[in-house]
Write a structure and sequence with these properties.
The chain contains five helices and ten strands; from the N terminus they run αββββαβαβαββββα. The chain is of the alpha+beta class and 200 residues long. It has a single domain, classed as 3-Layer(aba) Sandwich (Glutaredoxin). The protein has an eight-stranded mixed beta sheet, with helices on both faces. It is globular and about 45 Å long.
Length: 200
């Protein structure tokens, strides 16, 4: 429920990829001691997530315990928002350093278009960090994850998928701590990771 309220506060329920009429809340400014993302108070136990990547390797959120995980929802043919989110989260991974305990789990919202071949090409084209895991599955498999994470995805014409756009930051204890809208930047994520680590 806390996630739903946070999403509503961010006006994400009116946002969708490929929608020129998208309405987004301006990202909060970064200040010392204050999170850039929207904090969930108290922290919310992250819902289960278990899917495979384009190589068939299974990734679960439970197996990422002890690490910070950014969970987001994308599709490879997205014409606008998704590429920016992927780029910013990838930049955050690279800037955090190869030894940082941070991962990205990007869940597909396009089971038809996000084939293993399409995802492998996307990962190569975008130069995604090895800790950036693009997860795919059948519609039924993905719909279970979408439902748990309060994401809707609707196919439109010309391969466009309208879907809820947000990124959640899960801490090493498996708790959802922060939510970002589609304007998430690498600087915001890095700022919040430093702040979370300082409060452990």
């Amino acid at each position: 429920m806390r996630r739903v309220l946070a999403l509503t506060a961010l006006l994400l329920l009116a946002a969708g990829c490929g929608s020129s009429g998208q309405t987004l809340v301006e990202a909060p400014t970064q200040t010392a001691g204050r999170f850039a993302g929207t904090e969930l108070v108290p922290p919310h136990r992250a819902d289960a997530l278990s899917l495979r990547d384009a190589s068939g390797r299974r990734y679960t959120l439970a197996a990422r315990k002890g690490r910070y995980v950014l969970v987001t929802f994308l599709y490879t043919k997205c014409p606008d928002v998704c590429p920016l989110i992927a780029s910013n989260l990838n930049t955050a991974l690279r800037a955090s350093g190869p030894k940082a305990n941070v991962d990205v789990l990007a869940v597909s919202v396009d089971p038809k278009g996000d084939t293993p071949r399409a995802v492998r090409a996307y990962v190569k084209r975008k130069h995604l960090d090895p800790r950036f895991h693009y997860l795919i599955g059948t519609r039924r498999q993905l719909e279970r994850v979408w439902a748990a994470w309060h994401v809707t995805a609707q196919d439109k014409s010309l391969g466009v998928v309208n879907h809820i756009v947000y990124t959640a930051l899960v801490d090493p204890r498996g708790r959802e701590r922060l939510i970002y809208d589609a304007q998430v930047t690498a600087q915001q994520v890095l700022h919040d990771l430093r702040l979370l680590k300082s409060r452990r």
